[in-house]
Design brief:
The complex is a heterodimer. Chain A is α/β, with parallel strands linked by helices. Chain A is built from ten helices and eight strands. In chain A, strand 2, helix 6 and strand 3 form a beta-alpha-beta unit. Chain A is globular, with a radius of gyration of 20 Å. Chain B folds into two domains: 262 residues, Alpha-Beta Complex (2-enoyl-CoA Hydratase, Chain A, domain 1); 210 residues, 3-Layer(aba) Sandwich (Rossmann fold), CATH 3.40.50.11440. In chain B, the strands form five sheets. A seven-stranded mixed β-sheet of chain B has the order 1-4-19-14-16-17-18. A six-stranded mixed β-sheet of chain B has the order 7-6-5-10-11-12, with helices on both faces. In chain B, strands 13-20-15 form a three-stranded parallel β-sheet. The chains are: A alpha/beta, B alpha/beta. The interface between A and B is large, with 44 and 44 residues.
């Protein structure tokens, strides 16, 4: 049975890290760090990344903008060719296995409703391109590294895709594509994306952190858990009943979904 | 709180009690708690009939029904090796509270599946016919169908219906009234569909089973309209229900197009037994033990937090028993079901009330295993279900006053009822006019991709479901002059729904008498279990 799209001038904006995929930009960088030509260099970069995690975490808590400035400095000196080529491997090895089970379904529902699909991510554009292609979205808006003579300077091109800037980018995008933001959707997992969520008529918290969950409850925003596979709902299981995993692995239960 | 005293009285019409000077105070559900108050002398209290005795051998009763169907050949005679069969089964929105295991649906399924296997029918799918209700959780399905069926069929051949699956739904056609009839693709392409129904209220079963249980939004919105709700006098009296007429039109098209064998089961009304058995009794008949149990329970409930109270009630499955099972073609089977059901549930009442008093319990068809009975569902229970529990003429006269007891807390379950939250806080604060909501908001909620995702792969009610719930109370809203809620813990929720508040039943009755006069006839419906008033 075919259904007509119900929305014509609407878009759905998705944050990516934590919203559609389980990993974040630190995982991505760690992947690059561990893929150097020499074993010693890979080890050195990996250790350095691991040691930097507390600093990244603290910077992220203070300001997403600071975090970006500090974090992307780690890419300084990397060659553009290498980053782009490894991005395909990164997608297959790291990103694809970590896409939330229901992320593609959500995008499919939204597309069927007639919404334009836009990924709006603070990650680097070349790491997001294979994902955007895989999900079949219409547009990708992500941070871009600055390159000089095909080597990264460790700085991001402006505007930084983060925090309130995401809302500005969405407004500009809406104007450019004749989108009605009041009839549009935004999906994010993080409180830091409050501005992105607040600018649309239908904000939805996806796998939200505690602060966003609390805010979503206060503002009556729907909360969507893309991590919970259909047919398995452990969260509502009354105590005393056998876990689903055991039931599903019982003889004759058929294949897992 | 006054003590409940025993009283000797005649058993001639035990389901109608008139309060006099020495009557015991009456117990009313108040959400996850109780209210126990004296009622004015002359108040008429309507009790359900006593539970009918269950059949001695439920499995034999089911087998007899399958082998001696109404206006149809027996099920075994319809089976051929290699044929494609779909079994559709009602979800757990009924009965209320959930019944003890084995669920009667399990008994039917085990017998039917065994029969299918004996006849070489292997291509069998079992679909939970939930319409636009929430998908049942896996552990709920396992509990309902039993271990054997679960192990054999889950998850490839036992699953929830999905009314929003564009590839899983087909259009069977249109009724003469232009109502579209959508159907789940699997039964539409099957050689035979067997519908396993658990009939708890007269509104359910019959044509509604296939036409609603396996339909999509476009089909449902043809009859779940404020107009058809208002024209239903009442839902529980199918010949006088515009809603039932529409189900019937759609059902007739389904029956013409598909081969369907209906199996309907009827339960008695034994909602509570054991430690809670006293709730089924007339308060005048309470023993010392009953009084102690009630006082102890009330004391504990007063002290416990909301979530704990809710858990206590939700963990008390009911001891319903099978009192009838009928099978065959749609209408003749359903007629026999209704006759049996009315025998259990209909109570003859002399004349309507001016003031109707009812306690709203913790449960409704739409919040089984949910975290709360949200305000919209309180409204549905009061103005939708309980208001409509009559035949012949309304139990509350037109222009009468409805008094209900419930805390009306601003509590919603974000997993089961996400669109209810938006509906209540955004839509209802803009307009409470059902006709305007239908025009302006219903499709917006229905086509919201977030809500569709939550319905299809989460455990949420369909996005438009809260609209239907609001329409459900439309006739009640139009026909009552005032709705007064007793014991609301906030002023906002009742105000949004257009209700007045009172701190006690006495105050509410005084307010109601201000409209209906000092000599107003006051009637209390003693729920649960529910009863249908046959108003003469």
């Amino acid at each position: 049975m075919t259904t007509q799209p119900k929305y014509k001038n609407s878009a759905a904006f998705y944050d990516v890290d934590g919203t559609l995929i389980k990993i974040n930009i630190v995982h991505t960088f760690a992947y690059y760090a561990s893929r150097h030509a020499s074993l010693a260099q890979s080890a050195q970069r990996t250790i350095k990344t691991a040691l930097s995690i507390p600093m990244f975490w603290a910077a992220d808590k203070l300001s997403r903008k600071w975090f970006n400035e500090i974090f992307y400095r780690s890419y300084e000196g990397a060659s553009e060719d290498r980053l782009v080529v490894l991005a395909e491997e990164l997608f297959e090895d790291v990103v694809k296995p970590n896409i939330y089970p229901r992320a593609r379904d959500l995008i499919e529902e939204s597309r069927r409703a007639g919404c334009r699909q836009v990924l709006l991510s603070g990650a680097l554009d070349f790491t997001m391109r294979p994902l955007a292609r895989y999900l079949g979205v219409d547009d990708l808006i992500a941070n871009q590294l600055e390159f000089v003579d095909s080597y990264a300077t460790g700085k991001l091109k402006k505007p930084f895709v983060a925090g309130a800037t995401k809302a500005d980018i969405m407004r500009a995008y809406a104007k450019q594509h004749d989108i009605d933001l009041g009839e549009s959707w935004a999906y994010s997992d993080s409180f830091s994306d409050y501005a992105m969520l607040a600018v649309v008529g239908h904000p939805t918290a996806c796998n939200p952190d505690l602060r966003l969950r609390s805010m979503a409850r206060s503002y009556d925003w729907p909360i969507l858990d893309l991590d919970e596979a259909p047919n398995r709902s452990a969260s509502r299981r009354p105590q005393g009943l056998a876990p689903v995993r055991r039931l599903r692995n019982a003889p004759g239960t058929g294949k897992a979904d | 709180m006054r003590a409940i005293r025993p009283k000797t009285r005649s058993h001639a019409r035990e389901h109608i009690v008139t309060i006099d000077n020495d009557s015991a105070p009456r117990i009313m559900f108040y959400g996850e708690n109780f209210m126990c108050e004296d009622l004015p002398v002359g108040t008429r209290v309507i009790y359900p009939k006593r539970p009918m005795t269950g059949v001695a051998n439920p499995k034999a009763t089911i087998r007899y029904a399958l082998n001696h169907p109404e206006d149809s050949e027996p099920l075994h005679a319809m089976l051929k090796p290699g044929m494609k069969v779909t079994i559709a089964v009602d979800d757990i929105s009924m009965p209320l509270p959930i019944m003890r295991t084995p669920d009667v649906r399990q008994l039917v399924l085990e017998i039917v599946c065994e029969m299918l296997a004996d006849h070489g029918v292997d291509d069998v799918h079992i679909i939970i016919a939930l319409g636009l209700h929430r998908r049942m959780h896996d552990w709920e399905i396992k509990r309902m169908v039993g271990e054997r069926i679960w192990n054999e069929y889950w998850p490839d051949r036992l699953y929830n219906h999905d009314g929003c699956d564009p590839d899983g739904m087909v259009v069977l056609g249109h009724t003469p009234h232009g109502e579209i009839v959508e159907m789940n693709r699997r039964p539409a392409e099957s050689d035979l569909t067997i519908y396993v129904n658990l009939n708890y209220v007269p509104m359910n079963g019959g044509s509604k089973s296939m036409a609603v249980g396996l339909c999509g939004y476009e089909s449902l919105k043809a009859h779940h309209t404020p107009k058809s709700i208002v024209a239903s006098n009442s839902f529980m009296d199918p010949p006088k229900s515009a809603l039932s007429h529409s189900f019937k039109r759609q059902g007739e098209l389904v029956e013409k197009t598909l081969k369907v064998f209906h199996i309907e089961t009827v339960l008695n009304n034994r909602c509570f037994d054991g430690p809670l058995g006293f709730l089924m009794k007339n308060e005048d008949d309470f023993t010392e033990t009953d009084r102690l149990k009630f006082q102890g329970m009330k004391w504990a409930l007063d002290k416990l937090p909301f979530a704990a109270r809710r858990e206590i009630f939700m963990r008390q499955p009911a001891a319903f028993e099978l009192i009838g099972c009928y099978a065959g073609s749609c209408e003749p089977t359903h007629d026999r079901t209704l006759a049996k059901q009315n025998e259990q549930n209909c109570v003859e009442v002399d004349g309507p009330a001016d003031i109707l008093l009812m306690g709203i319990p913790y449960i409704s068809p739409y919040n089984v295993n949910s975290k709360a009975l949200n305000p919209l569902l309180v409204q549905v229970m009061a103005l939708g279900y309980f208001y409509h529990m009559y035949r012949n003429q309304p139990i509350l006269r037109d222009g009468g006053v409805l008094i209900l007891t419930h805390p009306c807390s601003d509590k919603f379950d974000p997993v089961h009822h996400p669109s209810y939250i938006e509906f209540f806080n955004r839509v209802l604060t803009e307009t409470t006019d059902s006709y305007a909501i239908e025009q302006k908001y219903q499709d917006e909620l229905a086509y919201n991709p977030s809500y569709i995702e939550m319905y299809r792969r989460g455990n949420a009610y369909h996005g438009a479901h809260p609209c239907f719930m609001w329409y459900w109370g439309q006739r009640g809203r139009e026909k009552t002059s005032r709705v007064i809620v007793v014991g609301a813990d906030n002023a906002t929720v009742p105000a949004i729904m257009g209700w007045e508040t009172a701190s006690s039943i006495a105050e509410a009755i005084a307010m109601a008498r201000g409209t209906m006069g000092r000599s107003a006839q006051i009637t209390m419906l003693h729920h649960p279990p529910y009863m249908i008033s046959d108003v003469m």
